[in-house]
Design brief:
Largest sheet: none
Radius of gyration: 18 Å
Low-confidence stretches: none
Mean pLDDT: 88
Structural class: mainly alpha
Helix content: over 70%
Shape: flat
Oligomer: single chain
Order of helices and strands: HHHHHHH
Strand content: under 5%
Length: 182
């Protein structure tokens, strides 16, 4: 855990504020840029810490956005946690409140319906990018490549062909990992 300076904490908050406004489909869709910022660009945490932050938060009960708090905690303790949570929650919450009130009054308009329909492919693309960021460290290691690609393939096919809850796929991934399959 790093002791970040105030300018670093403000920059962290500002970056997560910007990502909050780009997080169509939830904060997890911007995890690839969070990774770029805190791991690749600043080196505040490692690849393993980043991936573990997401895994721990996703396994815990509660909202999916908890992974942002765990990333912040790993970067700079309580101050980092507050910086990432405030950065993630404040702009998107205020924007959603304002837009939802506006759209509720105009829900039958062509523009509102077109916007809602157009967001689906964007959200899917952002989720795929996040999935790749989380899977790439395992795919790069030759001993883990086949297991990682198999888990990815099973997950994609299952989500496309069934109505199975994603939690069972998270459990499958955890079991495969615990057994040394990845």
């Amino acid at each position: 855990m790093n002791a970040l300076t105030w300018p670093d904490l403000l920059a962290l908050t500002g970056h997560f504020m910007l990502l909050s406004l780009l997080a169509i489909g939830g904060a997890i869709t911007t995890a690839s840029d969070m990774h770029r910022y805190v791991v690749a660009e600043h080196g505040w945490i490692s690849d393993a810490q980043f991936t573990s932050s997401i895994a721990i938060a996703q396994a815990a009960p509660g909202p999916n956005v908890l992974f942002v708090a765990v990333i912040g905690w790993n970067v700079a303790g309580v101050a980092g946690m507050l910086a990432t949570l405030i950065g993630t929650m404040l702009p998107s919450t205020l924007l959603v409140l304002a837009i939802s009130r506006w759209a509720a009054r105009r829900r039958e308009s062509l523009a509102v319906r077109a916007f809602a329909t157009g967001m689906a492919p964007l959200t899917l693309g952002l989720l795929l990018a996040t999935g790749w960021v989380l899977a790439e460290p395992f795919v790069r290691v030759p001993e883990q490549r086949i297991g990682a690609l198999a888990v990815i393939a099973v997950t994609v096919v299952t989500m496309l062909k069934t109505r199975l809850s994603p939690i069972w796929l998270v459990a499958l991934g955890a079991a495969v990992g615990a057994l040394g399959g990845i």
